[in-house]
Amino acid sequence: MKKLQKTTFIFLVILFANCKKSDCDIEFNKHVLTEILPSIIDSTCVDIRIFSNPPPPYGKMLFDKEGRFTKIDSTKATAKEIQRLKDWKKDIAEIKKDTSKVIIAFDPKISPYEKEYELIVIKDFPNDTLKKLIANKTKEYLLNYKSIRLNGKFMLKDINEFDRENIFERKYKFNFSGILRVSGIKFDKKCESGILDVGFTCGRLCGYGNKIFIKKVKNKWKIIKMEGTWMS
Known about the structure:
Layout: H1 2-44, H2 48-51, E1 60-63, E2 69-73, H3 79-97, E3 102-106, E4 109-110, E5 141-142, E6 154-158, E7 175-182, E8 186-187, E9 193-203, E10 206-217, E11 220-231
Parallel strand pairs: 3-6, 3-7
Antiparallel strand pairs: 1-2, 4-5, 7-9, 8-9, 9-10, 10-11
């Protein structure tokens, strides 16, 4: 009887420890994502008013003998081109001086990093173990992003407050710039390095994604590498 009680006690201790570890894993994920999110936003999001407004044509395009483009001779710019460039610079300057917030729709539901059995061996992780970690679909969580202090002029707004089907067709009373989605972070065994997916959508056919590598440096989490994964 005592042996059965002892076995039951050990089982309960192990079960409690495993549950606690799982909770800590999620809380650690939340903590690190909360710390690194401002840097992710600064590195990923754009003001669509500037991003979708490239400088106008200016000068004459030059080609080589095979008809391949070589460069643009800006000394050949016409009077109209010179004026258009001045107007463009003025418009961009006004946008940059605008102190109103640029709103980014953000999905607070964070899903696990989905790359399964991925071996990551790059110079930044020479002895790393970011591999063969099966994505666990049950470990979604909600990020309390409203408590995160952001840099610059960006501001997050819950995507659930938008009409998702017509999000880019609607007219807003604020500067809406796009949708930001981030995955959970996959860590190495020492929890000193991590990787996550980030995507920014600025229109129906406008957007891009990045694989972001982070590392703990002097007790602070930093982005050390970004790799493009898709573009629209």
